[in-house]
Amino acid sequence: MGGVRRAGPLGTAAAVRRGRPAGAAAASANNLFALGLNYTDHGEEAYRAAGREYRRPRHPVVFTKDRGCVAAPVGPVGIDFSLSREIDWEVELAVVIGRRAWRVDEAGALDHVFGYCVANDITARDLQTRHKQYYLSKSLPGSCPLGPWITTADEVPDPHDLAITLSVNGVLRQVSRTDQMVFSIPETIAAISRIVPLEPGDLILTGTPAGTGFAADPPSYLAPGDVVECSVEGLGTLSNRITALD
Q1: Backbone phi and psi for residue 231, each to the nearest 5 degrees, phi listed first
Q2: 51: burial class by Cβ within 10 Å (0-12, 13-18, 19+)?
């Protein structure tokens, strides 16, 4: 996979240039969708942590994050630890929609993708448990570092064949490949667009593999001073230090 990684405002292919972070542009995204339990090994660890038997989802588990949670790909991420003491990490491949997708089929779904980038779907696990849903627990300000640039789709021959990793303070916690997704990107785009039109600039986070903190024994969560690095093969690396908001 060679060539220049082109980055620019989400949903536009003009006037792009190398090295411009995707995170700032992402603040203008229309919608920020994400998938839960989209890697079998993560589904298994999540169910195991809950004391339940794993059941593979029959349909994509889709939720949304507030677009205001997007953070820069490099630098500090401020977390309000008065709201949560169980701040967890989730490295993900993010899909950037480039043109409107409404009731598209799987065969043509990738034609609507502008490009790809790296995301960290930071999650407040105690809020997730308390509220019995995803939105609030995954929408804290700063809870979605994104970038470091947008790699256009023409430079990613197969988005389902990329290494994906996450480390905390230099220790690998998540190691997988995107071919382990339960639902592929075309399946996901087709499923969402049957119900909700996808617009240029919309983002889809495609799920995380095993190795999350809440499923560890004992559970492990982020604290001020921790450095989280998220990488997807050929798409770059996020590097963020966790800080506590006053």
Answers
A1: -135, 145
A2: exposed
Mean per-residue pLDDT, 35-56: 95
Distance of CA 83 to the CA centre of its chain: 22
- What is the sign, positive or negative, of the torsion defined by CA atoms of 219, 87, 166, 94? positive
Length of the chain as a residue count: 246
pLDDT recorded at residue 133: 87
Give the DSSP letter string of 10-65.
Answer: TT--SS-BTT--HHHHHTT-S-EEEEES-BHHHHHHHHHHTT------SS-EEEE-
Report the pLDDT value the prediction gives residue 30, as an integer from 0 to 100.
Answer: 78
- Class for domain 22-244, per CATH? alpha beta
pLDDT above 50 (res 24): no
Name the pTM for this structure.
Answer: 0.90
- CB neighbours (10 Å) of residue 176? 20
Structural domain spans, the chain: 22-244
**Does pLDDT of 18 surpass 60?**
no
Closest residue by Cα to residue 23 from 68, 66, 79, 61: 68
> Would you state the pLDDT for residue 166?
98
Residue owning tokens 């990490």: 89
- Average pLDDT, stretch 135-154? 96
Contact criterion met (CB below 8 Å) for 140 and 120? no
* Residue-averaged pLDDT of the chain: 90
β-bridge pairing 61-64 and 70-71: unpaired
Contacts of 219 (CB under 8 A, 6+ apart): 49, 86, 213
